[in-house]
């Protein structure tokens, strides 16, 4: 997957910046990247097998904590069936002195002390870390002091201060940088290729109804920051003023407003919406960095202010996008806001660059067929 993604990214960059390379060079690069990736995986597997069969290469661990805590960690290690780790001792930090730990470290030639002691005072844990630091023994500190439901734990350094980071949104990574590059390159390429379609849509809106070509609205972006989202205008110019008249017809639960056969939509607007052509100007939002090609659909600011569940705001923890799981799951056929949010959180919790690519490809037939459009 990584080789395919890198090759696609390079082809996109070449197209955008008009870099001339022959097809044979691209093919050779793709084959080499696949071969090198395979060699890396094979080498890693062989090294792991060697570690498992040679006791001298095993990681010799002393488990440190209360008897219950060390036994729990031992069970987790045993469940992995990973013989590259060997627990040589369980040490009761609440009962035995640190001096005794140092003596046992020497006797068992331990090279790792794994601290699983959530209820032990930090000053005692600090003594263990300082002692191991002087001995050159590695310390692993279990970061399960708090019971989290969905947050993942990471370690970071903030100007020399070590931090435990609890995050429930995709963390910054090379995949994240690749996503930004694909967003920019993809939006630029699509704007160039679809420029005739954009022009025709603009002319159709201008000729068939009075008012501006573009509809601008404040939407909630990443972390709730408002931005101006662009769409081809598909309703009359008084659509926002008439919204309260149609409140009783709202068929969407929660704070979102959706009406079947909305009388405010113009004839050309209905066609544009059926095939999502009204969304094309949002490619400019992607170029500006306010949106992504794939991500939860941006909601109007006044709707996000009416979120009743704190978990609903987690859909604002990533950039909004042109398409997402909701878009390829029936779009407006999803009438429960809780189902919409569930799909968005499923995307956030399982995000990968590969998932983005799959969603983009699955969006194409949905748009052409007009599935779930209103």
Structure notes:
This protein is α/β, with parallel strands linked by helices and 374 residues long. It has helices at residues 2-17, 23-53, 67-80, 98-108, 122-135, 174-193, 195-208, 239-242, 267-274, 282-287, 301-304, 337-349, 353-369; strands at 59-65, 85-92, 112-115, 138-141, 152-158, 161-167, 214-220, 226-232, 292-294, 321-323. It is built from 13 helices and ten strands. The strands form four sheets. A four-stranded parallel β-sheet has the order 2-1-3-4, sandwiched between helices. Strands 5-6 form a two-stranded antiparallel sheet. It has a two-stranded antiparallel sheet with strand order 7-8. The longest helix has 31 residues, at 23-53. The chain is elongated, with a radius of gyration of 28 Å.
Low-confidence stretches: none
SS-based class: alpha/beta
Mean pLDDT, rounded to whole units? 83
Nearest-angstrom radius of gyration? 28 Å
Largest sheet: 4 strands, parallel
Shape estimate: elongated
The strand count comes to: 10
List SSEs in N-to-C order. Answer: HHEHEHEHEEEHHEEHHHEHEHH
Spatial strand sequence of the major β-sheet: 2-1-3-4
Total domain count: 3
Helix content: 40-55%
Bin the strand percentage. Answer: 15-25%
- The end-to-end distance, rounded to whole angstroms, is 36 Å
Instruction: Please give the count of helices.
Output: 13
């Amino acid at each position: 997957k990584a080789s395919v993604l890198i090759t696609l990214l390079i082809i996109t960059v070449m197209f955008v910046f008009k870099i001339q390379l022959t097809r044979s060079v691209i093919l050779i690069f793709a084959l080499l990247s696949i071969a090198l990736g395979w060699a890396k995986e094979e080498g890693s597997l062989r090294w792991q097998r060697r570690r498992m069969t040679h006791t001298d290469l095993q990681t010799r661990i002393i488990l440190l904590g209360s008897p219950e805590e060390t036994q729990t960690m031992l069970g987790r290690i045993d469940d992995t069936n990973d013989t590259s780790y060997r627990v040589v001792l369980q040490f009761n930090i609440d009962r035995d002195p640190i001096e005794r730990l140092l003596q046992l470290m020497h006797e068992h030639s331990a090279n790792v002390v794994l601290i699983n002691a959530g209820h032990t005072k930090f000053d005692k844990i600090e003594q263990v870390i300082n002692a191991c630091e002087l001995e050159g023994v590695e310390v692993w500190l279990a970061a399960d002091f708090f019971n989290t439901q969905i947050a993942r734990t990471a370690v970071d350094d903030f100007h020399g201060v070590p931090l435990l980071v609890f995050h429930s949104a995709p963390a910054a990574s090379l995949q994240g940088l690749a996503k930004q590059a694909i967003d920019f390159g993809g939006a630029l390429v699509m704007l160039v290729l679809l420029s005739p379609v954009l022009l025709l849509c603009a002319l159709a809106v201008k000729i068939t109804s009075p008012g501006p070509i573009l509809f601008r609205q404040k939407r909630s972006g990443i972390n709730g920051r408002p931005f101006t989202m662009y769409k081809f205008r598909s309703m009359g110019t008084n659509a926002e003023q008439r919204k309260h008249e149609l409140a009783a017809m709202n068929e969407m639960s929660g704070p979102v407003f959706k009406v079947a056969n909305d009388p405010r939509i113009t004839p050309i607007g209905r066609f544009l919406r059926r095939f999502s052509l009204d969304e094309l100007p949002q490619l400019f939002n992607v170029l500006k960095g306010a949106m992504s090609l794939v991500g939860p659909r941006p909601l109007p600011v006044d709707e996000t202010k009416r979120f009743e569940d704190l978990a609903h705001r987690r859909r604002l923890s990533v950039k909004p996008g042109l398409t997402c799981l909701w878009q390829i799951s029936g779009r407006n056929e999803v009438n429960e806001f809780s189902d919409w949010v569930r799909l968005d959180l499923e995307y956030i919790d399982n995000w990968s660059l590969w998932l983005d690519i799959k969603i983009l490809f699955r969006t194409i037939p949905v748009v052409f067929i007009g599935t779930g459009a209103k």
